[in-house]
Specification:
The protein is of the alpha+beta class and about 80 residues long. The protein has one domain. Helices cover about 30% and strands about 15% of the residues. It is built from two helices and four strands. It is globular.
């Protein structure tokens, strides 16, 4: 998490066309384990940072009937490719 904080802080401190670079960047950070102690591969933690997101929220989905992770990536990569 320290490295992620350093990356976001560096992007925030870098000017880009009268904005900070973080406003023009999308950062995706995640893990392949929901619970590394028991090697659970469901309910994976994923963090989105940067421009193009509605910030300040925590989304917790139903642990039994949730969405496949690729459904989350579709809008993310679609917005990157569209810009």
């Amino acid at each position: 998490m320290r490295l992620l904080d350093q990356l976001i802080s560096s992007l925030r401190a870098t000017p880009e066309n009268r904005q900070s670079l973080i406003d023009r960047t999308m950062v995706l950070y995640g893990s392949n384990m929901g619970n590394a102690n028991s090697h659970v591969t469901t309910n994976l933690p994923v963090i989105f940072a940067g421009g193009g997101f509605r910030h300040g929220q925590h989304l917790a989905f139903d642990t039994e009937h949730n969405y496949p992770l690729p459904n989350l990536y579709g809008p993310f990569f679609g917005s990157v490719l569209a810009s």
